[in-house]
Fold:
Amino acid sequence: MVSTNILSEVLTLAEAVVLSRWFGHPLDRANLVRYAQDGRLAARKSSGTWLTTRSALRQLILALETESRGRPRRVHLSKDRTVVYNRSPELAAALAGIQELRQELRAEALPPEQEAHLWNALEARAIYHTNHLEGNLLTFEDAQAIIEAQRANSEARQNHDRA
Structure:
Protein backbone atom coordinates (compact mmCIF):
# COMPACT_ATOMS: atom_id res chain seq x y z
CA MET A 1 0.00 0.00 0.00
CA VAL A 2 2.77 2.45 0.93
CA SER A 3 4.76 1.74 -2.24
CA THR A 4 1.61 2.26 -4.35
CA ASN A 5 1.12 5.67 -2.76
CA ILE A 6 4.74 6.59 -3.39
CA LEU A 7 4.57 5.50 -7.01
CA SER A 8 1.42 7.52 -7.64
CA GLU A 9 3.40 10.67 -6.83
CA VAL A 10 5.94 10.23 -9.64
CA LEU A 11 6.62 13.29 -11.81
CA THR A 12 8.88 14.12 -14.67
CA LEU A 13 10.80 17.37 -14.24
CA ALA A 14 8.60 18.98 -16.92
CA GLU A 15 5.56 18.17 -14.78
CA ALA A 16 7.43 19.41 -11.70
CA VAL A 17 7.96 22.79 -13.39
CA VAL A 18 4.20 23.15 -13.86
CA LEU A 19 3.47 21.97 -10.32
CA SER A 20 6.03 24.35 -8.82
CA ARG A 21 4.06 27.23 -10.32
CA TRP A 22 0.96 25.95 -8.51
CA PHE A 23 2.98 25.98 -5.28
CA GLY A 24 3.83 29.64 -5.92
CA HIS A 25 7.54 29.06 -6.44
CA PRO A 26 8.15 28.87 -10.20
CA LEU A 27 11.24 26.85 -11.07
CA ASP A 28 12.61 26.01 -14.48
CA ARG A 29 13.79 22.60 -15.64
CA ALA A 30 17.47 23.58 -15.67
CA ASN A 31 17.33 24.56 -11.98
CA LEU A 32 15.50 21.35 -11.10
CA VAL A 33 18.18 19.29 -12.88
CA ARG A 34 20.86 21.22 -11.00
CA TYR A 35 19.09 20.66 -7.67
CA ALA A 36 18.78 16.94 -8.50
CA GLN A 37 22.46 16.66 -9.38
CA ASP A 38 23.41 18.53 -6.19
CA GLY A 39 21.24 16.20 -4.13
CA ARG A 40 18.83 18.90 -2.99
CA LEU A 41 15.96 17.33 -4.99
CA ALA A 42 15.38 13.61 -4.62
CA ALA A 43 15.31 12.60 -8.28
CA ARG A 44 16.67 9.93 -10.56
CA LYS A 45 17.46 9.83 -14.25
CA SER A 46 15.86 6.89 -16.04
CA SER A 47 16.41 6.34 -19.75
CA GLY A 48 17.18 10.01 -20.29
CA THR A 49 14.18 11.25 -18.25
CA TRP A 50 14.54 12.80 -14.83
CA LEU A 51 11.94 11.54 -12.34
CA THR A 52 11.01 12.88 -8.94
CA THR A 53 8.01 12.83 -6.61
CA ARG A 54 5.50 15.44 -5.50
CA SER A 55 6.73 15.22 -1.92
CA ALA A 56 10.36 15.69 -3.00
CA LEU A 57 9.33 18.78 -4.96
CA ARG A 58 7.45 20.13 -1.93
CA GLN A 59 10.51 19.50 0.25
CA LEU A 60 12.71 21.43 -2.19
CA ILE A 61 10.27 24.34 -2.35
CA LEU A 62 10.06 24.48 1.44
CA ALA A 63 13.84 24.48 1.66
CA LEU A 64 14.03 27.28 -0.92
CA GLU A 65 11.34 29.26 0.91
CA THR A 66 13.27 29.18 4.18
CA GLU A 67 16.49 30.38 2.55
CA SER A 68 17.14 34.10 2.73
CA ARG A 69 19.85 34.27 0.07
CA GLY A 70 19.60 35.18 -3.58
CA ARG A 71 17.41 37.69 -5.32
CA PRO A 72 14.80 39.24 -3.03
CA ARG A 73 11.18 38.41 -3.65
CA ARG A 74 8.81 41.03 -4.99
CA VAL A 75 7.36 43.11 -2.18
CA HIS A 76 3.63 43.85 -2.36
CA LEU A 77 2.65 47.37 -1.42
CA SER A 78 -0.80 48.42 -0.26
CA LYS A 79 -2.47 51.61 -1.50
CA ASP A 80 -0.84 53.66 1.25
CA ARG A 81 2.58 52.30 0.11
CA THR A 82 3.18 50.17 3.20
CA VAL A 83 4.74 46.76 2.82
CA VAL A 84 2.33 43.82 2.88
CA TYR A 85 3.93 40.49 3.78
CA ASN A 86 2.40 37.25 2.57
CA ARG A 87 3.95 35.10 5.33
CA SER A 88 3.50 35.64 9.00
CA PRO A 89 6.38 34.90 11.39
CA GLU A 90 4.33 32.01 12.75
CA LEU A 91 4.07 30.48 9.28
CA ALA A 92 7.78 30.98 8.64
CA ALA A 93 8.59 29.30 11.98
CA ALA A 94 6.22 26.43 11.18
CA LEU A 95 7.84 25.95 7.76
CA ALA A 96 11.29 25.93 9.35
CA GLY A 97 10.09 23.34 11.89
CA ILE A 98 8.67 21.17 9.14
CA GLN A 99 11.95 21.40 7.24
CA GLU A 100 13.89 20.28 10.34
CA LEU A 101 11.58 17.29 10.79
CA ARG A 102 11.98 16.34 7.13
CA GLN A 103 15.75 16.47 7.45
CA GLU A 104 15.54 14.15 10.46
CA LEU A 105 13.37 11.75 8.45
CA ARG A 106 15.83 11.88 5.54
CA ALA A 107 18.63 10.93 7.93
CA GLU A 108 16.77 7.69 8.70
CA ALA A 109 17.52 5.97 5.40
CA LEU A 110 15.67 2.93 4.10
CA PRO A 111 17.54 -0.37 3.91
CA PRO A 112 19.43 -0.53 0.57
CA GLU A 113 17.36 -3.50 -0.67
CA GLN A 114 14.07 -1.73 0.01
CA GLU A 115 15.29 1.50 -1.59
CA ALA A 116 16.50 -0.38 -4.68
CA HIS A 117 13.14 -2.19 -4.90
CA LEU A 118 11.22 1.11 -4.71
CA TRP A 119 13.46 2.76 -7.35
CA ASN A 120 12.99 -0.25 -9.67
CA ALA A 121 9.22 -0.12 -9.20
CA LEU A 122 9.25 3.64 -9.77
CA GLU A 123 11.27 3.23 -12.94
CA ALA A 124 8.89 0.51 -14.23
CA ARG A 125 5.86 2.72 -13.62
CA ALA A 126 7.47 5.70 -15.33
CA ILE A 127 8.43 3.64 -18.37
CA TYR A 128 4.95 2.10 -18.57
CA HIS A 129 3.18 5.48 -18.34
CA THR A 130 5.52 7.11 -20.85
CA ASN A 131 4.89 4.32 -23.35
CA HIS A 132 1.16 4.37 -22.59
CA LEU A 133 1.04 8.11 -23.37
CA GLU A 134 2.69 7.37 -26.72
CA GLY A 135 -0.08 4.89 -27.55
CA ASN A 136 1.52 1.59 -26.53
CA LEU A 137 -1.20 -0.95 -25.68
CA LEU A 138 0.85 -3.16 -23.33
CA THR A 139 -0.61 -3.72 -19.89
CA PHE A 140 1.45 -2.69 -16.88
CA GLU A 141 2.19 -6.34 -16.09
CA ASP A 142 3.46 -6.95 -19.65
CA ALA A 143 5.63 -3.85 -19.56
CA GLN A 144 6.99 -4.81 -16.14
CA ALA A 145 7.86 -8.32 -17.40
CA ILE A 146 9.77 -6.82 -20.33
CA ILE A 147 11.61 -4.37 -18.07
CA GLU A 148 12.57 -7.15 -15.63
CA ALA A 149 13.78 -9.33 -18.52
CA GLN A 150 15.91 -6.42 -19.78
CA ARG A 151 17.36 -5.90 -16.28
CA ALA A 152 18.17 -9.63 -16.02
CA ASN A 153 19.85 -9.62 -19.46
CA SER A 154 21.83 -6.52 -18.54
CA GLU A 155 22.98 -8.05 -15.24
CA ALA A 156 23.90 -11.31 -17.00
CA ARG A 157 25.98 -9.38 -19.56
CA GLN A 158 27.74 -7.44 -16.80
CA ASN A 159 28.50 -10.64 -14.89
CA HIS A 160 29.76 -12.29 -18.10
CA ASP A 161 32.00 -9.29 -18.86
CA ARG A 162 33.47 -9.41 -15.35
CA ALA A 163 34.28 -13.10 -15.66
User: Anything to note?
Assistant: The beta strands are 10-12, 43-46, 49-53, 76-77, 83-84. The chain has seven helices and five strands. The mean pLDDT is 80. The helical segments are 2-7, 13-22, 29-38, 54-66, 89-107, 112-133, 140-162.
